[in-house]
From TrEMBL:
Protein name (Swiss-Prot/TrEMBL): D-alanine aminotransferase
EC code(s) of this entry: 2.6.1.21
NCBIfam families recorded: D_amino_aminoT (TIGR01121)
Keywords on record: Aminotransferase, Pyridoxal phosphate, Transferase
Family label: Belongs to the class-IV pyridoxal-phosphate-dependent aminotransferase family.
Keyword Transferase found: yes
GO MF term set: D-alanine-2-oxoglutarate aminotransferase activity; pyridoxal phosphate binding
Organism, as annotated: Paenibacillus oceani
GO-annotated cellular components: cytosol
Gene3D superfamilies membership: 3.30.470.10, D-amino Acid Aminotransferase, subunit A, domain 2
Length: 277
């Protein structure tokens, strides 16, 4: 079941135009919601980010957010997915290829679907490996747009190196991972890059910072170096589909003895308690 604008279509009938600006230019925005027990997790935060991204790229939404919410809710119900993700993207619409915005009457195109996805508990427990790479993305990483080639190339480089993910840095300052935020723990204190234009303002990141505060774990939104990353006691990433993944190997060197650390585990446990039953 695919939602295109306001139509619910079987996958075999779902198609978009070759002149869609999302296809030509990556001229679109998106969100990925986590579905836990048939409910959208942190729904208002995702809508807020979608609205902000639309505003910042000067794109109008195809309908008021309440109408979009009604449609996505219906999609979720019709899909029958209980645990998984809901993907929604909105492009600037269909128009002949020309970089500047299309005529004002051009309708944005919305596409959404749900997929089953179990919680990746194996990797949450065992942790993953990562390599470090220069962050070659653009300077508005705070916007959740379709232009993901920087992340695609980084993730592919990790795959070719036999690693699970990538830790990105700009001139030695660690920003985030290819599709998640990064946190380090040193002497019991958490640090993560400030929510500026160089990282996506992750919703899981915000939840984890809140949980750190509630659990008496000092947390700092502060830029840190590759050197600090390598000296960290614990490293973990945060993201909608991953929740918290410990990173136990970086560039082939183990972190914290190659095991998920106590602060990471405490935050994982706290996160699990926020999941609706
Ligand atoms: N950074 C990037 C580059 C991402 O693509 C994502 C996942 N969309 C995140 C961080 C994590 O954000 P969230 O917790 O909202 O999934």
């Amino acid at each position: 079941m695919i939602l295109i604008d306001d139509r619910f279509l079987p996958e075999s009938e779902a198609s978009v135009s070759y002149m869609d600006r999302g296809y030509y230019f990556g001229d679109g925005i998106y969100e990925v919601f986590r579905i836990y027990n048939g409910q959208l997790y942190e729904k208002p935060a995702h809508y807020e980010r979608l609205i902000r991204t639309a505003r910042e790229v000067k794109m109008r939404l195809p309908a008021p957010i309440e109408t979009i919410d009604d449609r996505l809710t219906e999609l979720l119900e019709r899909s029958g997915v209980r645990n998984g993700i809901l993907y929604v993207q909105i492009t600037r619409g269909v128009a002949p290829r020309s970089h500047a915005f299309p005529p004002a009457e051009t309708k944005p195109v919305l596409l959404a679907y749900c997929n089953e996805l179990e919680r990746p508990v194996g990797k949450m427990q065992s942790g993953i490996s990562a390599i470090t790479l220069p962050d070659i993305r653009w300077l508005r990483c705070d916007l959740k747009t379709l232009n993901l080639l920087g992340s695609v190339l980084a993730k592919q480089e990790a795959a070719e190196a036999g690693a699970d993910d990538v830790i990105l840095h700009r001139d030695g300052i660690v920003t985030e991972c290819s599709a998640s935020n990064l946190m380090i723990v040193k002497d019991g204190e958490v640090s993560t890059h400030p929510a500026d234009h160089l990282i996506l303002h992750g919703i899981t990141r915000a939840v984890v910072l809140r949980l750190a505060e509630e659990n008496g774990i000092p947390a700092h939104e502060i830029a840190f170096s590759l050197e600090a990353l390598r000296q960290a006691d614990e490293v973990f990433l945060t993201g909608t589909t991953m929740e918290l993944f410990p990173i136990v190997t970086i560039d082939g060197v183990s972190v914290g003895g190659g095991q998920p650390g106590p602060v990471t585990r405490k935050l994982q446990a706290a996160f699990e308690k926020t999941i609706p039953i």
